[in-house]
Task: structure prediction
Amino acid sequence: MRVPYETMQAEFRRVLEKYGITGDDAALSARLFADASRDGIYTHGLNRFPKFIKSIENGSVDVKARASVSQRLGMLERWDGHRGPGNLNAYLCMRRAIELAHENTIGTVALSNTNHWMRPGNYGLMAVEAGCIGILWTNTVPNMPPWGGREARLGNNPIVFAVPNGDTPVLLDVAMSMFSYGKLESYARQGKELPVDGGFDRDQHITRNAADILETHQCLPIGYWKGSGLSLMLDLVASALSGGRTARQVGELPTETELSQVFIAIDVNRLPDGEDFARRVRDTLADLETSAPVDPARPVYYPGKNMMRTRLDNLKNGIPVEESVWEGVLRL
Amino acid sequence: MRVPYETMQAEFRRVLEKYGITGDDAALSARLFADASRDGIYTHGLNRFPKFIKSIENGSVDVKARASVSQRLGMLERWDGHRGPGNLNAYLCMRRAIELAHENTIGTVALSNTNHWMRPGNYGLMAVEAGCIGILWTNTVPNMPPWGGREARLGNNPIVFAVPNGDTPVLLDVAMSMFSYGKLESYARQGKELPVDGGFDRDQHITRNAADILETHQCLPIGYWKGSGLSLMLDLVASALSGGRTARQVGELPTETELSQVFIAIDVNRLPDGEDFARRVRDTLADLETSAPVDPARPVYYPGKNMMRTRLDNLKNGIPVEESVWEGVLRL
Result:
């Protein structure tokens, strides 16, 4: 089943208004959810929407609160999210980072006390649409053991890099765990083996069996000890800049809330060699794609390229939905 | 064989002066090389020193040139390395980023046209000693295939994060490839299997056999497609900020030179909650280390902790050296 982008957006807006998010904010939040599904990030679009509504119901998200600036510290601007909706807060902070980048080449906004931002790529694309490079990351509840450990002590702390490149920007959105729990569940449901090692089984052996990893909750960091260290550092830097909670402190709360996030924009148009940079990007991407492929049937592509194909298809033919999820939203 | 730290430093200084680096610069460069070996990073200390001398001889490094500021673009300061010695250039740029952080909380310096910075952790530790968080990365010559490709099109682009934490700072220094060529060579020499997958063999199967990977030169990015994307993004951002060459453009030169680097310092003491942040760091590290270990004999530790043990041992008992390398330096 496929649902038109506009229909999905209108339906999200109807539900959000029912739950107390009004006017332009409802329209914006609805668009951000619909954009995720439009671009093929179904896990953080339609499929995440019911969970977002639950986080309003359980009090994690305060629908009336919005992020506002709390401190200006030289080149750093700190915002307090007041536990408002994570996507609206992130939107406001990215918008502000872009404004600052227009003034100072680089803009840095750090946000404390916020909620899950849903699809992080949205804010990277905001930067790109404003002619900026976007770099943003968040901490999360502890959901990944450090390398060598069995118990979750680190977040998977996704980071986004977005670089302008005409119609098909470069967009990278990666968590520090090899696979998200959503991905593990999907492989387990289908009984499919993971394409690469994903975590530990109960005998403490590394495995590609998603069901075994869901049992131990011991997912692997990307690059083993390297991703473990990167996750730790992204968490500490987000907490330093924002003044907000570390992943460990988020884990002390009854639900995943009061997160710390960082939004950086770099205004490429303010660089005297902005046009030459655009050429350097194009040349690098073209060079990447000429690498002979390991599997002749699967040419090399750069991050973000396939997304634009999915977007065009979904805008033309409607967004593929899991019927039960879509019908659940219609009933909200 | 173990060599006292002071002896090693004096010997490096003697050779550097012979090759045209004089006065304080010779002392500083010698110290940076010796510090790497002192902290156990032998590959980028003593063992790298003869290669550095060769890069002077082959003209990649101009011993008389030093990085200098080239453009001030709002919050970004661009420096031109003029192909001077990579470690001295990196030192100057990190020192300037720290100065800017003291003024504006965050300092960002981007450096073009420089040479290999030897051990990157040195500059992270500079930040920490000045009460700052340090974040720095470099691009490199293309030495890693993108995910799905067989030919090197990306650099391994190491990144460092350093966070102050009393006597034992948190220090992460990771390249975007799973293993460096130096590591692969060391495993191959010893005929030892890599602890995790490291690259592809000639039949395009993923392998732990270092010799096979040295044959194909197809090393694995950390987290497969994720590290491939991260490497690309670090390269593009370094080139954007510095105005310097991308990894692809570095690959057009006869030797690895004219690199692009980024140095960011965040002054923790300028944060109104700096002391509370120090507590958040301590609590996070303590929490990390209480995770039950996968292997009961190997407790979890945070990045940088073991380094301080090695440093104390090497300062007390001398720095372990490969005799042939040390004698080679004595003969220079």
Remarks:
- Residues 86-104 of chain B form the longest helix (19 residues).
- Chain B touches chain A through 79 residues (CB under 8 Å).
